[in-house]
């Protein structure tokens, strides 16, 4: 019997950058079968044991069937498949306490217009998904020469101010509440150090190499980094920072930080004059 195995990675990044990682491991079954083969069991356990056990927060197990047969039979079979996988996991020393869901979902309906490769489509619906929810990895402190978190009297021209709470949502140039709170502090510092001029630099992450700029989901135009920089500029003007002390420019994806790409959804303040 041919064994299919798939692994999907889903990253949900919150504004604090502590992303929840979800891994899905799928086991596929022949028609009307709920027992795992020795090889299926071995491969599934090996996959789970490769993961740092301290990061496994919860495990969810969902069983499915194809669209052939009665609803009540498919519901029962999908539940049996989920339970067999659960028993296999716990019998191999993985604590049952982290398994929070065991559910048979019944049959997976197929769209009426799907006529090609119908047997293959059905075979991939006869499965159990083992969903591992992992705790976020500790966020590394980003240390870059010449990069600071605020203005000081020791700053020199060329120094960059990188704000931890100035990360934008994907595809957005709108300031969040956290961003505005950070900018309120920056405005006070700029009022304190009146000799400092800045360039507000907007950046984006995760665009294809041939696309230096990203699309702003609100304006539908490929000016996302520019719009992010302009949003910060306008907010600081609103906070009474003179326009003559600031310029703004979008740099697209041309200046990545080189660590976590999500950190590039940012705006930096670069000192141009003191």
Task: Point out poorly predicted stretches.
Answer: 1-19
Distance between the termini: 72 Å
| SS class | alpha/beta
Largest sheet: 5 strands, mixed
Strand element count: 10
Shape: elongated
Beta-sheet strand percentage? Answer: 15-25%
Q: Provide the residue-averaged pLDDT.
A: 84
Strand adjacency order, main sheet: 1-2-5-3-4
Counting H and I runs of at least 4 residues, what is the number of helices?
5
- The helix content is 25-40%
The helix/strand series, from N terminus to C terminus, equals: EEHEHEHEEEHEHEE
Break the fold down into its secondary structure elements and pairings:
Elements: E1 7-12, E2 20-28, H1 38-49, E3 56-65, H2 71-91, E4 99-107, H3 118-125, E5 127-134, E6 147-148, E7 160-162, H4 177-192, E8 197-202, H5 224-238, E9 246-250, E10 267-273
Parallel strand pairs: 3-4, 6-7, 8-9
Antiparallel strand pairs: 1-2, 2-5, 3-5, 7-10, 8-10
Fold and architecture overview:
The chain has helices at residues 38-49, 71-91, 118-125, 177-192, 224-238, and strands at residues 7-12, 20-28, 56-65, 99-107, 127-134, 147-148, 160-162, 197-202, 246-250, 267-273. The strands form two sheets. Strands 1-2-5-3-4 form a five-stranded mixed β-sheet. The chain is 26% helix and 24% strand. With 274 residues, the protein is of the alpha/beta class. It has five helices and ten strands. The radius of gyration is 26 Å and the shape is elongated. Mean pLDDT is 84; it is low at 1-19.
């Amino acid at each position: 019997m041919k064994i299919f195995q798939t692994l999907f990675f889903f990253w949900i990044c919150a504004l604090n950058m502590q992303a929840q990682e979800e891994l899905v491991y799928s086991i596929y079954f022949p028609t009307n079968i709920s027992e795992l083969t020795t090889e299926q069991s071995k491969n599934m356990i090996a996959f789970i044991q490769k993961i740092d056990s301290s990061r496994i927060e919860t495990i969810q197990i969902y069983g499915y069937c194809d669209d052939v047969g009665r609803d009540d039979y498919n519901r029962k079979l999908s539940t049996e498949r989920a339970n067999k996988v659960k028993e296999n996991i716990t019998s191999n020393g993985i604590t049952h306490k982290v398994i929070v869901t065991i559910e048979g979902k019944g049959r997976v309906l197929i769209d009426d217009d799907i006529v090609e490769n119908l047997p293959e489509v059905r075979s991939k619906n006869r499965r159990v998904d083992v969903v591992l929810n992992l705790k976020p990895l500790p966020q590394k402190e980003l240390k870059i020469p010449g990069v600071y978190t605020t203005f000081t009297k020791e700053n020199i021209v060329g120094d960059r101010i990188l704000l931890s709470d100035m990360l934008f949502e994907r595809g957005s140039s709108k300031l969040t509440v956290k961003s505005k709170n950070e900018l309120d502090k920056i405005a006070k510092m700029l009022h304190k150090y009146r000799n400092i001029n800045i360039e507000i630099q907007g950046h984006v992450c995760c665009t294809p190499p041939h696309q230096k700029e990203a699309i702003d989901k609100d304006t539908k135009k490929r000016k996302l980094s520019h719009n992010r920089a302009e949003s910060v500029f306008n907010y600081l003007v609103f906070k009474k920072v003179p326009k003559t002390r600031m310029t703004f420019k979008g740099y697209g994806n041309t200046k990545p930080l080189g660590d976590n790409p999500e950190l590039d959804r940012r705006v930096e303040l670069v000192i141009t004059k003191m």
